[in-house]
Queue: 2 jobs
Job 1
Amino acid sequence: MSVNAQRTEGSGTSQLLDQIRSTGYNKDVTFALARVVSIDPLVIRLAGESFDLEEDDIIVARSLRERVITAHITDISTESAGSHSHSGDSGGSTSTNGSHTHAISGNATVTLPSPLEVDAKVIVAIHEISAADKEFYVIDMPGEAPEGGGE
């Protein structure tokens, strides 16, 4: 089996789209770039189109939505030098001028914000069910290549 190792030109997004087109054409699914017009409610506009897709018209990948996760934090220590104070749950407090550490370990609930913002570009997969019926999936955002070109 031979592998085509030819490099493509253009941005990371255009390279991704070229690879998808060359490796697995599916006439029912196409990809397009879009721009976020509004966040609340979410509205996007496909590149080259004059109409907007509203939140009810699109399915957004979980990684692009605000979401809450539980993370386990293990052995994070902070070193706090200088004058500062601590207050306790029972209303008392202490002050110190010395250096000491604070250790944190346990589960934490973290809210990951949506990376979407007005005028952000997004990649949309368009599934054509029939000539009159399409599904629009916001699947990712174009990003910069990793340091060193990702090679």
Job 2
Amino acid sequence: MSAGLTHGATSTVSAAGDRRGTVVVTTVASDSHTWNLVFLQLLIEELGYQVINLGPCVPDQVLVDACRETAPDLVVISSVNGHGHQDGLRVIDALRACGELTSTPVVIGGKLGVAGQQSDAAIGELISAGFDAVFDDASTTTGEFSRFVGALPAATRAPERTEVVA
């Protein structure tokens, strides 16, 4: 998911009291990039969600603990360094191993491999491992991501916590 793609995929901005739910945004533990997280946070907020941005280089257990504490409606994992596929397989295993997170939607996107666009088999491997969607920078657009997020059902509960410090 790259900032170079269409910005302003949505023109709807919800009021703070009208939030659809909570989304956790993070990178994999090996990725120190932040611009992608800021872009995603702004885009997801425009779609009406409260965003908890855990920042870069998030260890797997910190992500699991934050998700257990906040019970997000979606987890978005972004990678820019090309290790998203490799690290993503480990992260989704940790998330899906936690009973209360087995049905939480989790997506991954960005530069997922050092060779560029992911093959259908590599994307299939991520889906089979437990991701609900894969947004490879080389083959998907911000609009596709926005449509996925926009199609999620609105949360039925108010968020209990608005910030997680990792």
